[in-house]
């Protein structure tokens, strides 16, 4: 039976009313199977009304796993001496783009650890070269925290979007899962700067990271409601064997899916990836993400030689598939649930009716 209070909160969201942290916490703590299905189907209907049964593909190029940071949950943290480090050259990055372009990708996501080699000068050159060669493609960066000036140079060089998960809206939790030199305030300063500069910005968090409570997730959802990112990345935390959290439990898929649906309800136009982490914990995880309101998937375009080295967590999905096989597999998975993959930049749009454009 549907919980009437949850139903009312869902209608409030649909009517564009803001929820409080208490409201979000109430949903996360009290939902039952029927509420879960109701929230899922509401989110899915909104996604279909706006995007149709169409899924945007982004090709992700993991160009360096060298990182000066030491996030306690992450497999490429600098203290992990078992991680075999690599850095792609500009030419190798361009080869990945060329492959991707030929397979139909129109967005390249360049992701890396915070690798000092990629100074503004080096990174601007990479971005400019991609921009000149693939004028109609979107360039998304996911390269961590930098100064506002640096973000602006990269934007002026041709980058359009930036993914930087906020990781935790609760300061205490943020400080527990990061070393003290990684500052909560700086993470949020970066997100604000990126938005001010004009990027389409992605925020987000893991579900089930150690110490996280439902109250903390409610605070994350509240932050997302207020900040209104153009993209939101949410996936379960998965332990990595060479991190301090190696013995911890993975996060819940169900709770991750519920949060994705709630984000779709709050921000109908949001670009919402069905994350690799979802697919890594459960074979059909990425399909489930789409059925819960996601509209983006990000197959891997990194060269096979480095695939197994960019491991943020154990048992990452897709490390054995080359670029062509990755997209074929995902296309098939999407077709199985009645969705079609589109070759399109898939920019964020403010208008509510996008179907058929
Ligand atoms: N360095 C960039 C940054 O900080 O945004 C991009 C790379 S970072 C590795 C990408 C994302 O991976 C992080 O924002 C984090 O949420 C996610 N991640 C890291 N370790 C994870 C884990 N053990 N389980 C699930 N996701 C993880």
Describe the structure.
By secondary structure, the chain is of the alpha/beta class. It has 14 helices and nine strands. The protein has helices at residues 4-14, 21-30, 33-51, 90-102, 120-133, 148-157, 171-177, 184-197, 214-227, 253-266, 276-281, 285-291, 304-307, 323-336, and strands spanning 54-57, 59-64, 107-112, 138-142, 161-163, 200-207, 231-236, 296-297, 340-342. The strands form two sheets. It has a six-stranded parallel beta sheet. Strands 8-1-9 form a three-stranded parallel beta sheet, covered by helices on one side. Helix 2 crosses helix 9 (214-227). The protein is globular and about 55 Å long. 48% of the residues are buried. Residues 352-357 have low confidence and may be disordered. Bound molecules: S-adenosylmethionine. The site of S-adenosylmethionine (SAM) has 19 residues, from loops.
Based on the model shown, name its key terms:
357 residues, three-stranded parallel β-sheet, binds S-adenosylmethionine, six-stranded parallel β-sheet, 44% helix, 9 strands, alpha/beta, globular
């Amino acid at each position: 039976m549907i919980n009437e209070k949850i139903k009312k909160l869902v209608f409030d969201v649909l009517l564009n009313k803001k929820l409080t942290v208490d409201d979000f916490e109430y949903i996360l703590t009290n939902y039952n199977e029927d509420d879960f299905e109701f929230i899922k189907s509401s989110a899915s209907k909104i996604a279909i009304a706006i995007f149709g049964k169409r899924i945007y593909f982004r090709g992700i190029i993991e160009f360096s796993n060298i990182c000066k940071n030491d996030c306690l949950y992450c497999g490429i943290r600098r203290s992990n001496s078992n991680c075999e480090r690599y850095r792609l050259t500009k030419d190798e990055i361009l080869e990945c783009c060329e492959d991707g372009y030929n397979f139909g990708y129109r967005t390249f996501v360049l992701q890396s650890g915070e690798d000092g080699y990629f100074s503004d000068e080096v990174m601007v050159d990479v971005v400019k070269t991609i921009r000149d060669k693939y004028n109609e493609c979107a360039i998304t960066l996911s390269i961590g925290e930098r100064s506002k000036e640096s973000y602006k140079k990269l934007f002026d060089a041709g980058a359009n979007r930036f993914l930087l998960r906020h990781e935790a809206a609760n300061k205490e939790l943020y400080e527990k899962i990061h070393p003290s030199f990684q500052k909560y305030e700086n993470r949020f300063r970066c997100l604000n700067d990126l938005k001010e500069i004009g990027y389409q910005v992605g925020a987000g968090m893991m579900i089930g990271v150690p110490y996280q409570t439902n109250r903390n997730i409610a605070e994350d959802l509240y932050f997302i409601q207020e900040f209104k990112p153009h993209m939101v990345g949410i996936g379960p935390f998965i332990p990595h064997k060479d991190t301090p959290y190696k013995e911890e439990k993975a996060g819940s898929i169900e709770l991750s899916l519920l949060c994705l649906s709630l984000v779709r309800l709050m921000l109908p136009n949001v670009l919402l990836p069905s994350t690799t982490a979802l697919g890594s914990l459960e074979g059909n995880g990425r399909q489930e993400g789409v059925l819960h309101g996601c509209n983006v998937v990000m197959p891997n375009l990194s060269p096979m030689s480095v695939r197994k080295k960019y491991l943020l967590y154990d048992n990452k999905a897709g490390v054995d598939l080359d670029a062509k096989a990755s997209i074929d597999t995902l296309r098939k998975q999407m077709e199985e649930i009645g969705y079609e993959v589109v070759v399109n930049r898939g920019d964020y749009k403010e208008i509510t009716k996008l179907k058929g454009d």
